[in-house]
Amino acid sequence: MGAPVAKLMSEVKAKLLRPALTSHYAVEINRPSETFKTGQKFYTDTYVQDVINLSCAEASLPGSSLLTHELQDDYIGVTEKIPYRKSHDDTLSLTFYVNHNYDQIKFFEGWIRYISGEPMVGEATSNTVAKSTYNYRFRFRKQYVASIFINKFERDYASTYLRYHFLDAFPISINSMPISYDSSQLLKCTVNFSYTRYFLNPTSAPVSPTNPAPQPTDKNPAPSQSLSPPQSQFNNPQFGVDTTGQFTLSSSPLPTSPSSSANPSFEGEEIIGAQTQLNTPLNIF
Predict the structure, then answer these.
(1) Domain range summary for the chain, segments of one domain joined by +
(2) Residues 113 and 120: beta-carbon distance below 8 Å
(3) 231: DSSP letter
(4) Confidence check: pLDDT of 77 > 70
(5) Measuring CA to CA, how many Å separate 120 from each of 110, 163, 249?
(6) Which has the least CB within 10 A, 123, 163, 226, 260?
(7) Pair 26, 55: CB distance under 8 Å
(8) Over the stretch 60-76, which tens digit does the pLDDT of each residue have?
(9) So what's the pLDDT on residue 208?
């Protein structure tokens, strides 16, 4: 890097004044390989899936790191670190707003019950939790894992967005949700997921109302029609009413007052010697 170089303010604004915001994202939780019942609804229900995805209030983009091994005494006084494995966060935490029907709580509680082999809500079985002989058997991993996606985009949705794909995810815990007689607040449910790994795919933004697809251009476009009125309507050189009833203002320069040079504090004026001139003439039609 060489000596510092002066930059125009417009160049600095173009590079720095478009930061990414934290409030524009979308979460997608795919179905497990086998459906399970939550209350009186199945996860295959479109309504339940939309509620779960849209109610995600907080999410965290994962971080990654490299596991290293230290090498000493190869060079005098130098300690080197050699990476040998890539590591990432082992838990994904998602926080959901809980609606009036408690669909979020029932869904994730049902998912955990399904993993542990407990009978689902509404399932007819003799092995009930209230019995002293109650027992359960965990299911195979491939039956309850699913993929989770986090899409990070911006408000215009017209640029590249990030798509995080979490493989073989499933809930491992649901945080406690305190309730009290104090001032009412929105009930939130935080669920922690385990997953095998994740990978990141930068993707181009799809077509949206603010980012329409390019339309084919016409090789023989029709001649454009001007919407401006005829020039003859504005032929009155002085301020007044012309033949069409339009008010106009003369485009000739305004006279300069002697006091303008002594107190040149008007916006849009340029000081040239001892005289003040307008940068652009006024035109009012």
Answers:
(1) 19-66+78-203, 232-278
(2) yes
(3) G
(4) yes
(5) 7, 33, 81
(6) 226
(7) no
(8) 999 999 999 999 888 88
(9) 54
Cβ atoms of 176 and 62 within 8 Å: the answer is no
CATH for the stretch 19-66+78-203: 2.30.110
Q: Is the pTM of this model over 0.70?
A: no
Per-residue model confidence (pLDDT) at position 7: 86
Highest mean pLDDT pick, 17-26, 33-42, 214-223, 276-285: 17-26
| Whole-angstrom distance, CA of residue 73 vs CA of residue 77 | 7
Question: Where do the H-state alpha helices sit in 17-93?
Answer: 46-54
pLDDT, mean over the chain: 75
Those residues with Cβ within 8 angstroms of residue 140's Cβ, 6 or more apart along the chain or in another chain: none
Say if residue 58's pLDDT is above 90.
yes
Name the β-bridge partners of 81. Answer: 70
Pairing relationship of beta strands 41-42 and 275-278 according to DSSP bridges: unpaired
Question: Do the strands 197-203 and 161-174 form a parallel or antiparallel pair, or are they unpaired?
Answer: antiparallel
∠104-107-108 over CA atoms, to 5°?
A: 90
How many CB atoms are located within 10 Å of the residue 269 CB?
13
In the chain, the amino acid numbered 261 is S
User: Binning pLDDT at 50, 70 and 90, where does residue 38 land?
Assistant: low
DSSP 17-37: S----TT-EEEEEPPPSS--E
Of 143, 141, 194, residue with least CA distance to 167 = 194
234 DSSP 8-state letter: G
Percentages (nearest 5) of helix, strand, coil residues in the chain: 15, 30, 55
Q: Is 180 helix (H, G, I), strand (E, B) or coil?
A: coil
The strand ranges marked E within the chain are 25-29, 37-38, 41-42, 56-58, 64-75, 78-88, 91-97, 146-152, 161-174, 188-194, 197-203, 240-241, 247-248, 269-272, 275-278
